Amino acid sequence: MSVRRPTAVGVHIFAGGFSLGVREAGFEVACHLETSAYGVSTAEANLGIPAFWPEGKWPLNDLAGEVDLVYANPPCAIFSNMGISHDRGPGSQAWRDDPRTNCWWDVFRVAEALRPRVVLLESVTQAYVTGRPLGDELTRRALALGYSVTHLSVSSER
Fold this sequence. Notes:
Order of helices and strands: EHEHEHEHHEHH
Strand order of the largest sheet: 3-2-1-4-5
Helix content: 25-40%
Low-confidence stretches: none
Distance between the termini: 45 Å
Radius of gyration: 16 Å
Structural class: alpha/beta
């Protein structure tokens, strides 16, 4: 008897490192959804999965109801110590005006369309500090969609 592997779709995964871990966890990665060509050819060559870009080519209707996990790695430079918010000083909310912030909202547009069992976002610690208002808004939106929310911080420091 064959057991169906759970299906996953990556959003803003770029070259595909996150997808390797998702595969190792037992998921079948159906595709990546990207808004630019950055990393697409690398992911396709190394992972053998399709990557769709720009957003207008995302096959959301075809994937709806078929996906167990949407996982994402939206751009972190808007929050990181080397990014735009840092450059503008402590307490800066420059990330609000950075177009890369839209990538975070893309994840929820995909979740709304696909309604996976689980949505997973990964980023730098500063996303939870500098970008806390965004994290709080995304949490409210996830709760409104009927998801439970867990925030987890993992440090590799010893």
